[in-house]
Amino acid sequence: MENNVKISTGAAGGTQVSGGAVSTELLNEHAEGLLLNSIDERIVKVRPMSTPIEQLSRCGTSRHAGAMRVEYYSVDTKKTETVLTSAMDEYAEYRGDTPCIAMRTEDNNIFDVSETVLFPDLMVKHGKDEVPLVGYVLEAENNGKVTICPVNGIKDEEDGEPVMRIPATSAGTKVVRMGRAATELDVQSPQFAALPRKSGNYCQIFKMQVEESTLTKIAEKEADWSFSDQEEAAIIDMRMGMEKNFLFGIPAKVYDYNKKEPVYLTGGIWTQTTRKHEYPLTSTDEKDLIELCGTAFTKNAGSKHKILVGGTKLIESLSKINYTKVISAGDTMCKWGIEFKEIRSNFGSLYVVHSEIFDQCGHEKDGMIIDPEYVTKYVHIPFQIETLDLRKSGQRNTDAVVLTEASCLVLRYPDAHLRVCGLEI
Q1: How many beta carbons lie within 10 A of that of residue 42, not counting itself?
Q2: CB 119 within 8 Å of CB 101
Q3: 157 and 53, same structural domain?
Q4: Any idea what DSSP says for residue 91?
Q5: Domain span including residue 106
Q6: Phi and psi torsions of 57, nearest 5°
Q7: Which of 365, 370, 369 is closest to 423 using CA atoms?
């Protein structure tokens, strides 16, 4: 660093530079990751269509990993709906002037006092119309039940006393959380906090060694084939292998008894999401694609532009659909160096690309819808090329380079992604 350059910490914790220009060395030292790795910029130009997931990982969000074991947090949204586990009483019990009914659901913990709830399948007469039953939560999770006040139940009178009843319910009746309702004098409300879920993965050390003998190097060749061409071929093969691990790998730590040291295997994103959609491959009906888009873009608060990477049979099935104004296709776009076919629906847009990796790994019928906003690559060792001097070490009369990267791919918001499993029915 130049003697005149002064580094200080700003009021908000940032780094301030004075007395000199900001150099690459300064950026790498005080703002790591601000500059793109120039090697990455060249790698993404090597056969990007063959490895869409690995390509996306280099163009998207990347973070430094301080160790081979990566621990990260993924935040989920609070569930908005559940179902009853048993029927509710048809008649409300009055506490003063307030009608009360207890309900038991599969997940009482999602409800808080002062929230409103909706029963979309329970219709109640409202003037000339019928509307769903709405309730107000009075007590949450009390001895395995939630006490609500039915807001628009059917009011009646028996023996001079007010009574209120609701439509008949059964186990499986849907309950939807709605907004909170405070009283005029309320200053506080029940606390809400979204605690992130801790997950982990291993960075895998991907390596590829390229060698060319001195005699081969100096020999005349019919084709213009150089050592850099060898490196490019090796990078292609290395990226293909990384793509398979990033998709279908299983996180593990294995002890290699021959090398007397552990080996870290990275986990793929295929198992990082629990959401799954079964798609009928034999159908060429547009409604099946609409259902797929509905599943991909709802109940997850993700973005409205997602990527569908699929095997041959799934892409064939999607290509046979006759598209209308509801679902349109055919537009081609290029992003991240990959050429996509765009499918637009009222739910959102899918950028579709074929991947032979799915075929090679036994998933030719399947695909995966990925939200690129919530994919993060952790890098312990950035992609680097190391030259080996095998002549001086007395091993071989060759030029050799070793390509290395230690990295893994994680889904920060698992529910924003979707596995698509093709069914031949």
Answers
A1: 12
A2: no
A3: no
A4: B
A5: 82-180
A6: -65, -30
A7: 365
Among 394, 421, 202, CA closest to 295: 421
What domain count does the chain have?
2
> Within 13 A of 119's CA, how many CA atoms are on the CB side?
30
Residues 327 and 212 in one domain: yes
DSSP-derived secondary structure letter, 105: B
The reply to whether 20 falls in a domain is no
Above 70 in pLDDT, residue 216? no
For 315, list phi and psi in degrees, rounded to 5.
Answer: -65, -35
Closest residue by Cα to residue 46 from 412, 424, 406, 403: 403
**Rounded Cα distance, 244 and 357, in Å:** 7
Span 298-309, average pLDDT: 84
Interval 82-96 mean pLDDT: 90
- The pTM (predicted TM-score) of the whole model is 0.61
**pLDDT tens string 42-69:** 444 545 566 777 777 776 666 777 777 8
Mean pLDDT to the nearest integer, 23-29: 50
Q: What is the CATH number of the domain that holds 337?
A: 3.90.1690
- Which H/E stretch holds residue 59? helix 52-59
CB contact at 8 A, 323 and 286: yes
CA separation for the pair 32, 30 (Å, rounded):
6
Indicate whether 309 pLDDT > 90. yes
- Give the closest residue to 277 by CA, choosing from 306, 239, 234: 306
Q: Which residue has better confidence, 11 or 240? A: 240
Are both 250 and 362 inside the same structural domain? Answer: yes
* Plot region of 62 (φ>0 → left; ψ -120 to 50 → alpha; else → beta): beta
